[in-house]
Specification:
Elements lengths: L1 E6 L2 E3 L5 E9 L5 E8 L6 E6 L6 E3 L7 E6 L4 E6 L8 E9 L5 H6 L6 E2 L3 E5 L2
Parallel strand pairs: 2-11
Antiparallel strand pairs: 1-3, 3-8, 4-5, 4-9, 5-6, 7-8, 9-10, 9-11
């Protein structure tokens, strides 16, 4: 059983930055791809950014390309999401999620997947002046 715990959310002004962290624990194999998803009030879930187990494959939604960076510290079982140039439309609950998937497109496969077995509890991000 894989457990995921997010942290790092908060209130930030437009143009500001935040870094989210997702710590994985429990049964961790070397084929887990981990990603960040978000859901704003009244909107559907969006795959924001995902990263493969080795870190060699990454995926970004068009809405965050050039502003967000995903990274992974394998030794710490932690995935980070550095969010820069934040906009009010980035306001949402951000969730960390994982699925066992490998391959050169693992990150994209997770971010567009509708079947994801492991989720964190979410962390709120509010971008407002």
């Amino acid at each position: 059983q894989l457990q995921l715990v997010e942290s790092g959310g908060g209130l930030v002004q437009p143009g500001g930055s935040l870094r989210l962290s997702c710590v994985a624990s429990g049964f961790i194999s070397d084929d887990y791809t981990i990603g960040w998803f978000r859901q704003a009030p009244g909107k559907g879930r969006e795959g924001v950014s995902c990263i493969s187990s080795s870190g060699s494959s990454t995926y970004y939604a068009d809405s965050v390309k050039g502003r967000f960076t995903v990274s992974r510290d394998i030794a710490k079982n932690t995935v980070y999401l550095q969010m820069n140039s934040l906009k009010p439309e980035d306001t949402a609950v951000y969730y960390c999620a994982a699925r066992r998937v490998v391959g050169s497109s693992a990150a994209q496969a997770l971010c567009v997947s509708i079947r994801i077995p492991s989720w964190g509890q979410g962390t709120q991000v509010i971008v407002s002046s």
